[in-house]
Specification:
Family: Belongs to the metallo-dependent hydrolases superfamily.
Organism: Exophiala xenobiotica
Keywords: Decarboxylase, Lyase
CATH class: Alpha Beta
Structural class: alpha/beta
GO molecular function, one term: hydrolase activity
Protein name: Amidohydrolase-related domain-containing protein
Number of domains: 1
């Protein structure tokens, strides 16, 4: 038997499919220069973060190749309640970056940043970016300052999303200083307070609360085709799903119960959540067509995301067809994008099409 043959009773190793990533961040100068808060201070001190956030060219593409990412949907990082004018300028700068070469046009798509404190302006900017720039939806800080978006004034935005048939990605918002002090300060240094209130716990649970507020306000009854994406394994919601379903009768009858909303209106990504164990729960209560790969670049690396995906391949939890759905096909179906052939990275750091 020659060295390229596979024994009849042995399964051929799985080839990692091309990967599309949806929570991949960027800063235009327009947005970055428009605000000043603790989050911006922290990002500015993070080694290499700003170089990567301002880049939408060679550095980003090289690091995508290192993680077998064939297409990134680029979005503005935490924007801290930007004005309509800032959003317009930032979206135009992102569109320029996407259009600047044949390679970037093939491998980048855009999510719009929206002025969430002004729902009418947000709807207008969403429509403009979809129709003028070909953006495939929006990614926003899920709150406008300290305000949730469950009021009737946001109907204009939900209606526009439904009419355009594009999703909105509800990204965690950095907690206000007041919230940090009242809910997360304790007998420990401030750094512990911010991580508990932020990426360790607080901002994930708050996005879940926001979705439940939308459900309580009958947003999904009024807009049954609304499409919402949640990152980080669904911002805790898969792990509380049965509890939510069991308790929702207390809030009164909804035309569309939360189990239906979960199955029809919500998509989730794997962004920066790199353990196979939670996937066991997600795969048991979430449709495979609603799960999408993501990384959270540059706050974690493409290589770490690839390692997680390869662990999932080896776990036996999903078959090859299901892996392809998570890797890229669900994103293609939701966003109308197309995965390009994966590139193989050589030992010398150069890449070529597979």
């Amino acid at each position: 038997m020659d060295s390229l043959s596979v024994a009849p009773n042995m399964k051929s190793p799985t080839m990692t499919p091309p990967l599309i990533a949806l929570e991949e961040h960027f800063y235009s100068r327009a947005v970055f220069d428009s605000f000043d808060n603790d989050m911006k201070t922290g990002i500015s001190k993070w080694p290499g973060a700003l170089d990567r956030l301002f880049d939408a060219g060679d550095l980003r593409l090289k690091e995508m190749d290192n993680g077998k990412v064939v297409l990134q949907v680029i979005s503005h990082c935490a924007a801290d309640n930007p004005s309509p004018e800032v959003c317009r300028a930032g979206n135009d700068q992102l569109a320029e970056e996407i259009r600047k070469s044949e390679e970037t046009r093939k491998r980048f798509a855009g999510f719009a940043v929206l002025p969430m404190s002004d729902p009418g302006a947000a709807a207008t900017e969403l429509e403009r970016t979809v129709k003028e720039h070909g953006f495939v939806g929006a990614l926003v800080d899920h709150k406008a300052g300290n305000k949730f978006c469950d009021g009737d004034e946001y109907d204009v935005l939900w209606q526009k999303l439904q009419d355009l048939d594009v999703p909105i990605y509800l990204h965690p918002a950095w907690p206000t200083r007041e919230l940090l002090q009242t809910s997360y300060a304790g007998n420990y240094p401030p750094r512990s307070m911010t991580v508990i209130g932020g990426a360790m716990w607080g901002w994930h649970s708050e996005v879940g609360v926001h979705v439940l507020r939308l459900h309580a306000a009958r947003v999904f009854d009024k807009f049954p085709k609304l499409k919402i994406i949640l990152g980080h394994f669904g911002e805790m919601m898969p792990f509380m799903l049965q509890r939510i379903v069991d308790q929702e009768s207390i809030m009164g009858k909804r035309d569309r119960p939360f189990g239906q909303v979960w199955n029809e209106n919500i998509w989730i990504t794997t962004s920066a959540a790199y353990s196979v164990d939670p996937m066991r729960c997600i795969l048991a209560n979430t449709k495979i067509e609603r799960i999408m790969y993501s990384i959270d670049y540059p706050f974690t690396t493409n290589e770490r995301g690839l390692k997680f995906f390869q662990d999932l391949e080896k776990s036996g939890l999903v078959n090859e067809k299901e892996l392809e759905l998570i890797a890229y096909k669900n994103a293609e179906n939701l966003l109308g994008v197309k995965a390009q052939p994966a590139k193989q990275v050589n030992g010398n750091g150069t890449s070529h099409n597979a």
